[in-house]
Amino acid sequence: MAELTKLVGIVIWMFVIPFSAGLLPCALLPKEKRTPGVICLAGYLLTFAVFELTALPILLLTERGNFQLLTVLFTILMLLPAAVGLVLCGGPGGLTLPSGKPGREETVYWIIFAAILCFELYMSYTHMFFDGDDAYYVAASVITNDTGTMYRILPYTGGATSLDVRHALALFPMWIAYLARITGMHPAAITHSVLPLLMIPLSDLALYQIAKRLLKDRRPQIAAFMAAAALLQVFGNVSIYTPETFLLMRSWQGKSIFVNWIVPMVFGLFLCIAGLYRSSAEEKAAAGEKKFVWLLLVLLNLTSGLCTSMAAIMNVGLLFLCALFTGIAVHDRKVLRNTALACIPNFLYIVLLYALLK
Q1: Does the residue 255 lie in any domain?
Q2: What is the tens place of the pLDDT at every residue in 281-292?
Q3: What CA dihedral angle connects 312, 317, 320 and 323, to 10 degrees?
Q4: Which residues form the domain of 198?
Q5: Are 117 and 201 in contact (CB under 8 A)?
Q6: pTM value > 0.85
Q7: What's CA 112's distance to the chain center, in Å?
Q8: What number of other Cβ atoms are within 10 A of residue 32's Cβ?
Q9: Structure confidence at residue 185 (pLDDT)
Q10: How large is the average pLDDT for residues 139-147?
Q11: Structure confidence by residue, pLDDT tens digits, 75-126
Q12: Cβ contact 46:153 at 8 Å
């Protein structure tokens, strides 16, 4: 019975609540564009951004990083957007499922992709890949869950320590500790067995959004792209430093999340921005979509800070580079201006990091 309770908790807090919360930003979209994939991506960006905004002040302003306070506040702050999103979108009826019968070629490619994805998830769930960073990050999640403090006990020795700025501002291990506290599952089990089941499909969803825009909704080519991407992931372990190795064997680490999810999301969003700003004939129809995309860009910036401190800095540079090329391509200065506004949270994060280091 206890194991069933943990499983139900994981399903609710890792899947149901983030997906429901994704309906809140997706209320800006017309119903036909509220697909499950878009809702899922928006929901996790909102989840991670809210966690960063909640956890960072508590970490820095409370005496020992009050984890119990974080657990209560974050739970409330996630239930609210989930409830409001369900109301604004009219519940499950407010989303649109994929339509149209796939052709034979498309079906074959999707079967190949599904088979490879299932193999990836099975291997990630059943094999606890050893990684030296676990000595710090997994131990930090365990200590936080057990003691109710955040980054005030050194994982290597168990002794008291001052706030370690290099590691402390990467708060993804604290989200793992939150899941452990709210579900009753051990942080190590969540890290190694459960999180790959989330992060690998999220990475594929980001790649799918890129493929849809690059291939102009040509469905057989999109399916072939996804099958090829999955194949490259499986055979990408040519060294311990490749993105594929990080995705499949270190899914729970912030650096892996940045490379395999944040960066593809940046490219996907700017491809979407280019399409929206290139078409002036549908200016009014695209107004809600533009707000939605820029909102996701803000959430994406906040999420990058959850990964690592360096990711927050690198993300700003990547965004401005993409904004420059996109603005030139669509001949619109608003792209660069809006990107600068979306980067304000990261600028504040970087200033805070510099102040703490000095």
Answers
A1: yes
A2: 455 557 788 999
A3: -90
A4: 2-91+103-357
A5: yes
A6: yes
A7: 25
A8: 9
A9: 93
A10: 92
A11: 999 999 999 998 988 777 778 887 778 888 999 999 999 999 999 999 988 8
A12: no
Asked if residue 97 belongs to a domain, the reply is no
3-class SS at 153? Answer: strand
Q: What three-state secondary structure class fits 189?
A: helix
Give the model's pLDDT for residue 281. Answer: 45
The pLDDT value given to residue 195? 93
Strand pairing partners for 160? 153
Residue at 229 is within a domain: yes
Neighbours of 289 (CB within 10 A): 18
Q: Classify residue 145 as exposed, middle or buried by CB count within 10 Å of its CB (0-12, 13-18, 19+).
A: buried
**In sequence order, what are the beta bridge partners of 153?**
160
Are the C-beta atoms of residues 56 and 49 closer than 8 Å to each other? Answer: no
By three-state DSSP, how is residue 95 classified? coil
Instruction: Tell me what pLDDT residue 357 has.
Output: 60
Question: Tens digits of per-residue pLDDT, 162-177?
Answer: 777 666 778 999 999 9
Alpha-carbon distance 159 to 139, whole Å? 13
- DSSP annotation of 242 reads S
Other CB atoms within 10 Å distance of the CB of residue 169:
25
**Residues 228-238 as b or e (16 or more Cβ within 10 Å = b):** ebbeebeeeee
Q: Max Cα separation, the chain?
A: 63
Per-residue tokens: 203 = 């990475």
CA separation for the pair 181, 34 (Å, rounded): 32
249-278 confidence digits (pLDDT tens): 888 888 899 999 999 999 999 999 998 887
CA distance 323 to 269: 10
Is there a domain that residue 96 lies in? no
Each residue of 252-270: b (16+ CB within 10 Å) or e?
Answer: bbbbbbbbbbbbbbbbbbb
**What's the domain count of the chain?**
1
**CA separation for the pair 37, 105 (Å, rounded):** 22
Residue 290: CA count within 13 A, CB half-sphere: 17
Neighbouring C-beta atoms of residue 158, cutoff 10 Å: 10
pLDDT value at position 311? 84
pLDDT-based confidence at residue 63 (cuts at 50, 70, 90)? confident
